[in-house]
Amino acid sequence: MIILGLCGDHDGGAALYDDYRLIAAVAQERVTRIKGDGGRFPMEAVRECLIQAGLEASQIEAVALSRGSYDLSYYKARARLTTPLSGSARRDLMRMMTFQWIGDPARAFDAPRYLADHGLRPDRIMFYNHHLAHGLSALFHTDYDDALIYTSDGQGDRVCYSARRLVGGRLRSLFGDETESRRLRRNRADSLGDFYGAATQALGFIRLRHEGKVLGLAAFGEPIYAEELRSHFRVREDGQIKATVRTGKIQQEFQRLAAQGRREDVAASVQQVLEQVTLESLEKIVSRERPRNLAASGGVFANVKLTQRIAEQLPFDEVFVSPAMSDQGQAAGGVLQFLLERDGLATFLAHRQKLGNLYFGRDYMAQADNVFLEAGAARVADGRIVDFAARMLADRRILGLYLGRCEYGPRALGARTIMASPADRSINDWLNKRLDRTEFMPFAPVVRDARVDEVFNLPKSLHYAARYMTVTCNVKPQWRDRIPAVVHVDGTARPQVIRRADNPTYYDILQRFEEISGLPCAINTSFNTHEEPIINRPEEAMRALDQGRIDLLVTETGIFAKNPLSNEKSSTSTGAALIAG
């Protein structure tokens, strides 16, 4: 059965499955080039998935929809009884259902007409639960038979958290299920995701986009406001997190702190509260349930330091965070809920698959080299790609990798990656300037699986998660001065652990670079400039080369440079000789 999952809210996207096999998954922003694109039907992402699959829209047999926001014109009369005529043209389906006492989404929303207006006429339509979809997107890619499935985000389906227990072949809800979605009274301030977002905005960044900058900034400050902020949350004995104030009070407090204090100290305080409250919630659940493993998802788990703290302080055998932990992962999680409901838990668990790579975008490789050449790039190597690229890395050149299909989720993992040498501490200044990025943000390292334990204090419980850059860990002291460009001020790094089976060209470049330089790591940063989504099409990669963001473009069949090759700061005589030869 061909099943399409859709998410039309912020971080919109689509995922296409053939039963349990994921064919394609694309974030809307990658196609439209609008950061965080959403708030409408993700037509461009759907089209991208269908082209990759070689399918027509008419071949889609089932669609999984969120219960998020939709245009008011698609709501049925009963759902619109108390809807004001003015204001936004979009309304939240879950909220409409709750306040009109409607149990079945089909009685509130005309899904067949909504889909038909966008060219889809599936036989089956279902509406997925936001937090269950998050949780399943993590659980499905594990082999756990004993686990806690925990989600945390700003909110979805009127819920901020959920916890479920898998043990003995049964999946049991602890909290955050449908009952909580239907409660008329709730306090949005319960959400640690909203708490972190409010701090992000108060510090002058963009909410739902720059929370990672607050995390990076936190390492430069002291948590002097943490005790004051921590007092706004309490954790019940069952692990549920509740606020003691309303949202407006928290927003006012952040505005006051941001105006009178150092933003580094505010960031450090917010980060400490996030860690303390989440850990207390998990500790209470663990003390009652004794799960062996943790499968986590939701936007809060984009916070890689939080995951490090969980692994360090709680007795889990393994901690796995869904690589598409934000709402970019909702489309895939929605399909997984459809499959769970269709087939039952036993069949669902039997079909689970641990992840290899995350390259689920559209494949543009057949045209990439021609696009570069027609745009005026010079092919400077078409043989010995790995050796050439590794020597350029050692020569402090900046490589843009354009290898195969793009990644699913927010991280660049070798398909759309910028690689550079980690040996130059000053690269954090000058490469960030070339990419129009904030200079305090650290770069991340990529390391081969065979070398990770020599360089990093990465707990065994995080080795699987670290393939997808969802955790930080401490860099061993003897390496910190040798790879300074990937070590944050607090001595941590966010490594990607790469296996050769997942991306042979990427792996081989890294291995050859180590043979030349003696360094087991390279910089892996996303192939994009500030406020731009990670690149998708070859034309976007070529634009980066033209603008001088990178020195060389690397594909599996060639290496390309501007013609003539510019003599950037990173050039050396060795590099010039290689180009000439």
Return the domain count.
3
| DSSP helical segment count | 23
Portion of residues within helices:
25-40%
Number of strands: 25
Largest sheet: 8 strands, mixed
CATH topology of the largest domain: DHBP synthase
Cα distance, first to last residue?
53 Å
CATH superfamily of the largest domain, called what?
Carbamoyltransferase, C-terminal domain
The percent range for strand residues is: 15-25%
Classified by CATH, the class of the largest domain is Alpha Beta
How is this fold's topology laid out?
Elements: E1 2-7, E2 13-18, E3 21-27, H1 28-32, H2 43-53, E4 62-65, E5 69-71, E6 90-92, H3 93-99, H4 111-116, E7 124-127, H5 130-139, E8 146-156, E9 159-167, E10 170-175, H6 178-181, H7 192-202, H8 211-218, H9 226-230, E11 233-235, E12 241-243, H10 247-260, H11 263-289, E13 293-297, H12 304-313, E14 318-321, H13 330-343, H14 345-350, H15 365-374, E15 378-381, H16 385-394, E16 399-402, E17 416-420, H17 427-434, E18 444-448, H18 452-455, E19 456-457, H19 463-466, E20 473-475, H20 477-480, E21 492-493, E22 496-498, H21 504-517, E23 521-526, H22 538-546, E24 552-554, E25 559-561, H23 573-580
Parallel strand pairs: 1-4, 4-7, 8-13, 13-14, 16-24, 18-22
Antiparallel strand pairs: 1-2, 2-3, 5-6, 8-9, 9-10, 11-12, 15-25, 16-17, 17-23, 18-23, 19-20, 20-21, 24-25
